[in-house]
Amino acid sequence: MNPSHDDLKAHAGAYVLGSLDPDDRVSFEAHLAACEDCAAEVRALGRVTEALARSVPDRTPPPELRRRVLGAFQAQPAATRARAPAGLGQWLPIAALLVLTIGIGVYAARLQVRVTVLEERLEQALLQASAAETAVADARRVNTELQSAMGVLAAPDLVRIDLAGQAPAPQATARALWSRARGMVFTASNLPPLPAGRVYQVWVVPAAQAPISAGLLTPDPAGAGQSYFNTPPDIPPPAAVAVSIEPAGGVPAPTGAIYLVGKPGAAS
Description:
The chain is an alpha+beta fold and 268 residues long. The protein folds into two domains: 5-125; 159-262, Immunoglobulin-like. The protein contains six helices and eight strands, in the order H-H-H-H-H-H-E-E-E-E-E-E-E-E. It has an eight-stranded antiparallel β-sheet, with helices on one face. The chain is rod-shaped and about 125 Å long. The relative contact order is 0.09.
């Protein structure tokens, strides 16, 4: 059975240290020629071992220490000296383990980078999903308002009210189509741009009562606006419809200048 990529990659540390068996070395080098991932791992571990070697300062031992070490070695029995090189082999697995540990750290760092990238992609996907949900909600709202507006236009008690611009906006015009049972469709044009923190507010003005807010209107940059207002079903018939400019969010009763006003059956 051919070794897997992960099994071969595990030989990288021993390969760098030169401690692989000849057969394993041949197999690993054949894999290395075709695998850029393992080649990059070997290069990274090679730099680590070079750095470890350079991190130890070169020092020349005192002559006296050299004579003592050589004398102690020569004083050992020949059989003991013959086994001495085998001691070096005991350190190779430890060195290989050290290199592998460093390699695992490098791999973990790379894995963390990949995880971060995946987290960023997930966040982008969630934002896109949220934007899609908002778009669907907006589409449903517009569809509901369109159906409500069509209901107003088909209402048997439909009343048309044309509004004319007043002193603050002489070029402005508007039209309100109102049904007690189905609400109001309101369109306007040539309205002046709104100051910051202000909004246009539409009012139903009964004959003998205070004005009742129908809703808020924010025109586009060209001064045009259109909206559907769900007016209360028990609202008195309007003697007039007016538009004033009010603080953002609207107010219970008109406080600002009147920009548009009209009465039922009166054309602008």
